[in-house]
Give the backbone structure.
Amino acid sequence: MKSTELDKIELLEIPKISDPDGRGNLSVVEKDLLPFVIKRVYYLYDVPSSSTRGGHAHKQLQQFLIALSGSFDVVLDNGTQRRTITLNRPDRGLLIPNGVWRELENFSSGAVCLSLVSAEYNEHDYIREYDEYLRFVGR
């Protein structure tokens, strides 16, 4: 299997509508922002700063992560290289293609991570052991 080039994984701008009267902002995920139909939505919160979440890859599922509040780091790994991206703005999200190992760490106090995904939960789509992941990507 060809590994995903981590330097091509980018943050996507989420349209932001600023209220002219200073009542805050509104961001919308709709239409063609994502290359998939959203099949499941979940969020992480109250994660201790010393904890790590994720620690897996997906065979098929694609994922879009947004820091609704606070910040956290997403460590991406394709079997040969690692890249860390900090999410800290609710008008930017990280599109993670299938076949990429991900770990979430360094959660700030009050951080909320929203996850929009391309499929309903399916345990068979997960690769939870890193050695198995390396075999999956041909390393």
